[in-house]
Design a protein that fits this description.
- The chain is mainly α.
- The protein has one domain.
- It is 68% helix and 0% strand.
- The chain has 16 helices and no strands.
- Helix 2 crosses helix 10, helix 4 runs parallel beside helix 8 and helix 11 packs antiparallel against helix 14.
- It is globular.
Protein backbone atom coordinates (compact mmCIF):
# COMPACT_ATOMS: atom_id res chain seq x y z
CA UNK A 1 0.00 0.00 0.00
CA UNK A 2 1.36 3.41 -1.03
CA UNK A 3 1.45 5.80 1.93
CA UNK A 4 2.85 9.16 3.07
CA UNK A 5 6.27 7.63 3.62
CA UNK A 6 6.36 6.71 -0.09
CA UNK A 7 5.45 10.29 -0.93
CA UNK A 8 8.35 11.42 1.26
CA UNK A 9 10.68 9.01 -0.59
CA UNK A 10 9.75 10.75 -3.86
CA UNK A 11 11.04 14.06 -2.40
CA UNK A 12 8.30 16.53 -3.35
CA UNK A 13 10.72 19.37 -2.62
CA UNK A 14 12.86 18.12 -5.50
CA UNK A 15 10.14 17.51 -8.08
CA UNK A 16 10.91 20.83 -9.74
CA UNK A 17 13.57 19.56 -12.23
CA UNK A 18 11.24 16.96 -13.81
CA UNK A 19 8.26 19.35 -13.84
CA UNK A 20 10.41 22.18 -15.23
CA UNK A 21 11.80 20.06 -18.06
CA UNK A 22 8.36 18.57 -18.84
CA UNK A 23 6.98 22.10 -19.36
CA UNK A 24 9.78 23.35 -21.62
CA UNK A 25 8.10 22.27 -24.92
CA UNK A 26 5.06 24.48 -24.19
CA UNK A 27 4.08 28.13 -24.13
CA UNK A 28 0.89 29.72 -22.83
CA UNK A 29 -0.13 30.40 -26.44
CA UNK A 30 -0.59 26.64 -26.95
CA UNK A 31 -3.36 26.41 -24.31
CA UNK A 32 -1.79 23.06 -23.44
CA UNK A 33 -3.73 22.84 -20.18
CA UNK A 34 -6.92 22.01 -22.12
CA UNK A 35 -5.58 18.58 -23.17
CA UNK A 36 -6.22 15.70 -20.71
CA UNK A 37 -3.07 13.93 -21.97
CA UNK A 38 -0.98 16.88 -20.76
CA UNK A 39 -2.26 16.40 -17.21
CA UNK A 40 -1.70 12.65 -17.33
CA UNK A 41 1.94 13.29 -18.28
CA UNK A 42 2.21 16.02 -15.67
CA UNK A 43 1.03 13.64 -12.95
CA UNK A 44 3.58 11.06 -14.11
CA UNK A 45 6.56 13.45 -13.81
CA UNK A 46 5.58 14.35 -10.24
CA UNK A 47 5.20 11.43 -7.83
CA UNK A 48 5.59 8.32 -10.08
CA UNK A 49 8.76 9.33 -11.93
CA UNK A 50 10.44 10.76 -8.84
CA UNK A 51 9.40 7.70 -6.82
CA UNK A 52 11.30 5.62 -9.39
CA UNK A 53 14.36 7.89 -9.39
CA UNK A 54 14.69 8.53 -5.67
CA UNK A 55 13.23 5.20 -4.56
CA UNK A 56 15.95 3.23 -6.34
CA UNK A 57 18.48 5.73 -5.01
CA UNK A 58 17.32 5.20 -1.42
CA UNK A 59 17.16 1.41 -1.89
CA UNK A 60 20.93 1.41 -2.43
CA UNK A 61 21.88 4.25 -0.07
CA UNK A 62 20.73 3.08 3.35
CA UNK A 63 24.02 3.88 5.13
CA UNK A 64 24.44 7.35 3.59
CA UNK A 65 20.83 8.31 4.33
CA UNK A 66 21.02 6.97 7.88
CA UNK A 67 23.75 9.48 8.79
CA UNK A 68 22.35 12.35 6.69
CA UNK A 69 20.54 14.94 8.82
CA UNK A 70 19.13 16.53 5.65
CA UNK A 71 16.89 13.49 5.14
CA UNK A 72 13.64 12.68 6.92
CA UNK A 73 11.28 15.28 5.42
CA UNK A 74 9.19 16.02 2.33
CA UNK A 75 11.75 18.54 1.04
CA UNK A 76 14.84 16.33 0.81
CA UNK A 77 13.48 12.79 1.18
CA UNK A 78 12.82 10.03 3.66
CA UNK A 79 14.86 8.07 6.14
CA UNK A 80 13.64 4.52 5.59
CA UNK A 81 14.04 1.36 7.63
CA UNK A 82 15.51 -1.75 6.04
CA UNK A 83 12.05 -3.29 5.94
CA UNK A 84 10.62 -0.26 4.14
CA UNK A 85 13.48 -0.38 1.65
CA UNK A 86 13.02 -4.10 1.04
CA UNK A 87 9.47 -3.43 -0.21
CA UNK A 88 10.50 -0.54 -2.48
CA UNK A 89 11.27 -2.33 -5.80
CA UNK A 90 7.87 -4.05 -5.84
CA UNK A 91 6.04 -0.85 -4.89
CA UNK A 92 7.91 1.15 -7.53
CA UNK A 93 6.95 -1.43 -10.15
CA UNK A 94 3.28 -1.22 -9.09
CA UNK A 95 3.36 2.57 -9.49
CA UNK A 96 5.36 2.80 -12.72
CA UNK A 97 4.14 -0.06 -14.91
CA UNK A 98 0.50 1.10 -15.27
CA UNK A 99 1.83 4.38 -16.68
CA UNK A 100 4.21 2.54 -19.02
CA UNK A 101 1.33 0.41 -20.33
CA UNK A 102 -1.06 3.36 -20.58
CA UNK A 103 1.38 5.67 -22.36
CA UNK A 104 2.37 2.89 -24.76
CA UNK A 105 -1.28 2.29 -25.69
CA UNK A 106 -1.85 6.01 -26.16
CA UNK A 107 1.35 7.02 -27.95
CA UNK A 108 3.00 3.88 -29.31
CA UNK A 109 6.32 2.08 -29.12
CA UNK A 110 8.53 5.19 -29.06
CA UNK A 111 7.14 6.17 -25.66
CA UNK A 112 7.66 2.59 -24.46
CA UNK A 113 11.32 2.64 -25.52
CA UNK A 114 11.81 6.04 -23.90
CA UNK A 115 10.31 4.92 -20.60
CA UNK A 116 12.35 1.72 -20.74
CA UNK A 117 15.45 3.86 -21.25
CA UNK A 118 14.56 5.89 -18.13
CA UNK A 119 14.30 2.71 -16.08
CA UNK A 120 17.58 1.31 -17.45
CA UNK A 121 19.45 4.55 -16.73
CA UNK A 122 18.27 4.46 -13.12
CA UNK A 123 19.32 0.81 -12.76
CA UNK A 124 22.78 1.59 -14.16
CA UNK A 125 23.06 4.57 -11.85
CA UNK A 126 22.17 2.71 -8.66
CA UNK A 127 23.00 -0.99 -8.93
CA UNK A 128 26.22 -2.96 -9.03
CA UNK A 129 28.30 -3.77 -11.01
CA UNK A 130 27.69 -0.42 -12.72
CA UNK A 131 26.63 1.85 -9.81
CA UNK A 132 27.56 4.97 -11.74
CA UNK A 133 26.53 7.11 -8.75
CA UNK A 134 29.91 6.29 -7.18
CA UNK A 135 32.04 6.70 -10.32
CA UNK A 136 32.82 10.44 -10.45
CA UNK A 137 32.48 12.42 -12.65
CA UNK A 138 30.13 10.05 -14.50
CA UNK A 139 27.50 10.39 -11.75
CA UNK A 140 27.15 14.00 -12.94
CA UNK A 141 27.25 13.28 -16.66
CA UNK A 142 24.54 10.60 -16.44
CA UNK A 143 22.14 13.33 -15.29
CA UNK A 144 21.52 13.90 -19.00
CA UNK A 145 18.87 11.25 -18.36
CA UNK A 146 16.71 14.03 -16.93
CA UNK A 147 16.55 15.59 -20.40
CA UNK A 148 14.60 12.52 -21.55
CA UNK A 149 11.69 14.02 -19.59
CA UNK A 150 11.55 16.80 -22.19
CA UNK A 151 11.58 14.33 -25.07
CA UNK A 152 8.87 12.32 -23.28
CA UNK A 153 6.78 15.50 -23.10
CA UNK A 154 7.31 16.14 -26.81
CA UNK A 155 6.24 12.64 -27.87
CA UNK A 156 3.31 12.34 -25.48
CA UNK A 157 1.86 15.76 -26.30
CA UNK A 158 2.78 15.66 -30.02
CA UNK A 159 4.87 18.82 -29.81
CA UNK A 160 7.74 19.80 -32.16
CA UNK A 161 11.07 18.31 -31.12
CA UNK A 162 13.14 20.58 -28.91
CA UNK A 163 16.05 22.37 -30.64
CA UNK A 164 19.48 20.95 -29.93
CA UNK A 165 20.44 24.22 -28.27
CA UNK A 166 17.62 23.73 -25.76
CA UNK A 167 18.75 20.16 -25.07
CA UNK A 168 22.29 21.40 -24.38
CA UNK A 169 20.97 23.96 -21.91
CA UNK A 170 18.79 21.35 -20.18
CA UNK A 171 21.80 19.05 -19.76
CA UNK A 172 23.72 21.81 -17.99
CA UNK A 173 20.63 22.55 -15.88
CA UNK A 174 20.54 18.89 -14.79
CA UNK A 175 24.28 18.86 -14.01
CA UNK A 176 23.96 22.00 -11.89
CA UNK A 177 20.96 20.69 -9.92
CA UNK A 178 22.78 17.44 -9.12
CA UNK A 179 25.98 19.18 -8.01
CA UNK A 180 23.98 21.36 -5.60
CA UNK A 181 22.76 18.20 -3.86
CA UNK A 182 26.25 16.71 -3.72
CA UNK A 183 27.59 19.84 -2.04
CA UNK A 184 24.99 19.54 0.72
CA UNK A 185 25.78 15.85 1.25
CA UNK A 186 29.60 15.92 1.45
CA UNK A 187 29.91 15.06 5.15
CA UNK A 188 27.38 12.18 5.29
CA UNK A 189 28.71 10.78 2.00
CA UNK A 190 32.27 10.74 3.36
CA UNK A 191 31.08 9.13 6.59
CA UNK A 192 29.27 6.44 4.60
CA UNK A 193 32.30 5.87 2.35
CA UNK A 194 30.46 7.10 -0.75
CA UNK A 195 32.55 8.51 -3.62
CA UNK A 196 31.17 11.52 -5.47
CA UNK A 197 32.72 14.39 -7.38
CA UNK A 198 32.06 16.64 -4.38
CA UNK A 199 33.74 14.29 -1.87
CA UNK A 200 36.82 14.09 -4.12
CA UNK A 201 37.10 17.79 -4.98
CA UNK A 202 35.95 19.23 -1.68
CA UNK A 203 33.34 21.90 -1.07
CA UNK A 204 35.07 24.97 -2.52
CA UNK A 205 36.28 23.35 -5.74
CA UNK A 206 32.85 21.79 -6.31
CA UNK A 207 31.25 25.20 -5.85
CA UNK A 208 33.69 26.57 -8.45
CA UNK A 209 32.60 23.79 -10.81
CA UNK A 210 28.98 24.78 -10.24
CA UNK A 211 29.89 28.43 -10.82
CA UNK A 212 31.47 27.55 -14.18
CA UNK A 213 28.27 25.76 -15.21
CA UNK A 214 26.19 28.76 -14.15
CA UNK A 215 28.35 31.11 -16.21
CA UNK A 216 28.06 28.86 -19.27
CA UNK A 217 24.29 28.62 -18.81
CA UNK A 218 24.02 32.39 -18.47
CA UNK A 219 26.01 32.82 -21.69
CA UNK A 220 23.81 30.30 -23.54
CA UNK A 221 20.59 31.96 -22.39
CA UNK A 222 21.88 35.42 -23.30
CA UNK A 223 23.43 34.71 -26.71
CA UNK A 224 21.70 31.57 -27.97
CA UNK A 225 18.18 32.52 -26.86
CA UNK A 226 18.35 36.24 -26.02
CA UNK A 227 16.54 35.35 -22.81
CA UNK A 228 17.89 38.04 -20.54
CA UNK A 229 15.30 37.42 -17.82
CA UNK A 230 16.23 33.76 -17.23
CA UNK A 231 19.90 34.67 -17.70
CA UNK A 232 19.40 37.30 -15.00
CA UNK A 233 18.00 34.62 -12.66
CA UNK A 234 21.14 32.57 -13.09
CA UNK A 235 23.39 35.62 -12.97
CA UNK A 236 22.04 36.50 -9.52
CA UNK A 237 22.56 32.88 -8.44
CA UNK A 238 26.14 32.98 -9.75
CA UNK A 239 26.80 36.22 -7.85
CA UNK A 240 25.47 34.63 -4.65
CA UNK A 241 27.73 31.62 -5.21
CA UNK A 242 30.76 33.93 -5.47
CA UNK A 243 29.79 35.54 -2.16
CA UNK A 244 29.18 32.06 -0.70
CA UNK A 245 32.68 30.86 -1.65
CA UNK A 246 34.70 33.96 -0.78
CA UNK A 247 32.77 35.75 1.98
CA UNK A 248 29.88 33.95 3.66
CA UNK A 249 30.40 30.18 4.00
CA UNK A 250 33.75 29.54 2.28
CA UNK A 251 34.54 25.88 3.12
CA UNK A 252 32.05 25.54 5.97
CA UNK A 253 29.09 23.18 5.60
CA UNK A 254 25.55 24.54 5.61
CA UNK A 255 23.38 23.99 8.68
CA UNK A 256 20.12 22.06 8.33
CA UNK A 257 17.92 25.21 8.62
CA UNK A 258 20.07 26.89 5.95
CA UNK A 259 19.72 23.90 3.62
CA UNK A 260 15.94 23.90 4.10
CA UNK A 261 15.88 27.63 3.35
CA UNK A 262 17.93 27.06 0.17
CA UNK A 263 15.55 24.22 -0.79
CA UNK A 264 12.52 26.47 -0.43
CA UNK A 265 14.29 29.23 -2.38
CA UNK A 266 15.05 26.79 -5.20
CA UNK A 267 11.37 25.85 -5.43
CA UNK A 268 10.24 29.48 -5.49
CA UNK A 269 12.77 30.35 -8.21
CA UNK A 270 11.75 27.22 -10.15
CA UNK A 271 8.07 28.22 -10.10
CA UNK A 272 8.85 31.77 -11.20
CA UNK A 273 11.16 30.60 -13.99
CA UNK A 274 8.56 28.02 -15.14
CA UNK A 275 6.00 30.80 -15.51
CA UNK A 276 8.54 32.84 -17.45
CA UNK A 277 9.48 30.10 -19.94
CA UNK A 278 5.78 29.38 -20.55
CA UNK A 279 5.09 33.08 -21.08
CA UNK A 280 8.10 33.89 -23.24
CA UNK A 281 8.63 30.65 -25.17
CA UNK A 282 12.23 31.76 -25.69
CA UNK A 283 13.74 28.32 -25.01
CA UNK A 284 11.86 27.05 -28.06
CA UNK A 285 13.32 29.66 -30.42
CA UNK A 286 17.13 29.88 -30.35
CA UNK A 287 18.67 32.70 -32.36
CA UNK A 288 22.02 30.91 -32.69
Amino acid sequence: MINLHDLKISRPGLWFPTIWIYLVPFSFQDEFWRAPIFWLGFVFVTFPLNYLVYGLNDYNDYRADEVNDRKGNFLFGAKSSKLQLALLPKKIALVIFPFVIGFTIISGYKIFLLLLFMIVVNVLYNFKPFRIKERPPFEILIQVGYVVTGIFSVLLNEQPMLPWQTLVYLCLFAFQAHIAGEIMDIEPDIEAGKRTTATLLGRRKTKFLMLILLIIETYILSYWFEDYVLAGFLGVFALWLVLDVFVVFKSRPYTLPQMKLFGLAMNVSAILSMLWILYSGKLLHPVF
